[in-house]
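Hello Y.,

Per our agreement to keep a running log of every chain we model this quarter, I'm adding this entry. I've kept the format consistent with earlier entries: sequence first, then predicted structure.
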Amino acid sequence: MLINNWYVAAWSHEVTTRKPIGVRMLGCDFVLFRNADGRVACLSDVCCHRGGALSGGKVNSARVACPYHGWNFDSNGNCVLIPSMGEGAPIPRRARIDSYPTQEKYGWVWAFLGDLPEAERPAIPDLFPEYDDPAGWHRVSYGFEAKANWMRFEENSLDTAHTTFVHQQFGAIRNPKLEVFPLEHKEWGARVARVKPAPGADQKTGEMAKLLSAERKSTQVALEFSLLGLCHRIQPTFREGMSLINFTARTPVEDKLSRAFGWQARNYLKEPQYDAERIAAIELAVREDLAVVERVRPVHTPGALSEELLVETDGMEVAFRKCCWRWAARGWEIDREETERLGRSQILVIPSPARREDPKNWIHKTVPLRPVSTESDQVD
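Predicted structure for the entry above:
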């Protein structure tokens, strides 16, 4: 799992001024709450006093109170009240917890999990401008978890060859050959346009069956991913003027558990009466994917390209792995073995920007990271 990146922590509507909520990301626990001015705070969920879970406490304006002993923490993670010591009593300098930058975009709360100062943080990618065009694109939301490593989980969505065999709604089993186009590489992502054979008319049901005739020979699919924000968009165009977009962000929960937040937008059949049909199609596709991806071995993506027999149609998966490995080479990959060992007896947290300014005055230690490295056989 990688630090110094933006991850979706929750849906915006889930975070209120009334009650904090707890979320788990990168193997660590976080608490989210909304200040009186509407801004979202993201803190480590473990009180530095006696380990209480702040997500079980209360929100009071710009503070969250621990349910164990009532310690109050502001949105910057600083303790501002220790009730047992009395109002106005001096607060120890180490009475603080890590606080992480947040942004709201696409109806989600994003948290920056890392210690980079603001000037060095990457931006959340603009991969879904259609979100701001509700007249042209009607949206439905979806979300699910996979008992799979985050890299395996994301690679499944970048793999256009699997649809033929995994998805009964849109897999063209009669003709599995893909037309391959060159990838457009970006600094931390890639984009490709592909043409795949259309499924048979008998594979479609409901309104989609009426709209798509048997004469349609192929579907154009534009696929793009960004490691920044760990997200991707898939846009099949069925015929001129008829297209839909699946925009999905992945959040690693644990080493072998991942969460997906998604929107599907369509520029046809935009009336809400058709939403149930689309949601049912999404849920079926998710079940089909999970049945495969949760059983892929090894659980973790191999550490070198030579450890799997990759072919030309695996170009997007290869591009994704190379981006991940370059990010890890900066020293931003969590050492999962060492984290598991140390985590048995102590609280480990993701380093926050405040630790750059003051690395000493903290109670909780940060997760161990793998060392900075040079690119090797991984990216050959």
